[in-house]
Amino acid sequence: METKDNVSFVNSIIDDAIIANASDIHIEPFEKILRIRLRINGSLIEYKNLDIEMHSKIITRIKIMSGLDIAEKRLPQDGRITYKFENTNIDLRISIINTIYGQKCVIRILNPEHFKIGMKNLGISEQEISMVEEFTKFENGLVLICGPTGSGKTTTLYTMLEEENTIDKNIITIENPVEYNIFGINQIQINEKIGMRFDNTLKFVLRQDPSVIMIGEIRDTETAKLSMRASITGHKVYSTIHTDDAYQSIIRLMDMGVEDYMIRASVKVIIAQRLVKKLCPHCKQKVKVTPEQMEIFKSQGLNPTEIYAPVGCDKCRNGYDNRLAVMQILKVDDELRNLIKKDANLQSLKEFGNKNQVSGLFKKAMIQVQNGNTSFEQAMRLYNEN
Ligand SMILES: [Zn+2]
User: Of the residues 110, 125, 143, which one is the last residue of a structural domain?
Assistant: First the structure.
């Protein structure tokens, strides 16, 4: 069953995906074909369509590589592979689930080389980078990063931890999953099957004399309260929360039942983040701003006459190459602290932001359009959230 051909064929799929900078490989059975797609720069593209006969051979090979049960074909399974590519060990996360046509497999590629590129390559301005660096110098308090899945939160979080990573600090993370290994940082993988959750693991971590703690995600009241208490009692805490913007994070914490005084005392900064596609510099084309587009630019206090549109060339995909992060950075100062009360609402927080020139995500994206880095269409994806 395990032939040399299967081994080299599966390796060639993984190699191609790594070379193409894909983040995921999707192996999907249908009635007559086996479709393989790659996620590159956030979009799925077709890689190969194979005869459905190949299906079981490929899945079996992947299961062997990841130590999964070959005989189990009905229940979902998760596994991992440390894959050697050139001189790098690349972590692959395997997920297999049964569909009506058989087992679908998704391989997530966690390439450490990608992470090293870091924030400077995400197109964040020098001013924003220095603000983010400043937050890493706080002695204590909570730094929150928010955004949906795929918004680049983890890259920002790891970049900040790298900045903190000096010999005089004890840095401990609690993650699910541990996405990249960083030398010098104590990374803990939670495991709900054996009862290791974010909240109870954090209690034990606090007995390990940490200076900096990173908690993968705040998604329950207990974790929220413990994180905040830790950040008030002399620790620096980083975490993420699954909300659309910085203001909503404050409301979400209160909805979770966190006391307003705890939020006032602990939260130092909230960063909301999204990714937009970056225009390919080789083929982007100058276009005149239409009157309809101008209305929207003006609503954001912007006034460009020409912007760039995607074209497409042999160096890119549909006119885009790579991605850019847009960030909303909300520093919690005395004035904002006064607004964080039991009766606080989203509107009053947003008004505070507008008055204090805190640019929203949509405006940040429109500035990138004005600067010729992304297209009007990409920025409009954030419009409805504004
Ligand atoms: Zn191009």
Answer: 110
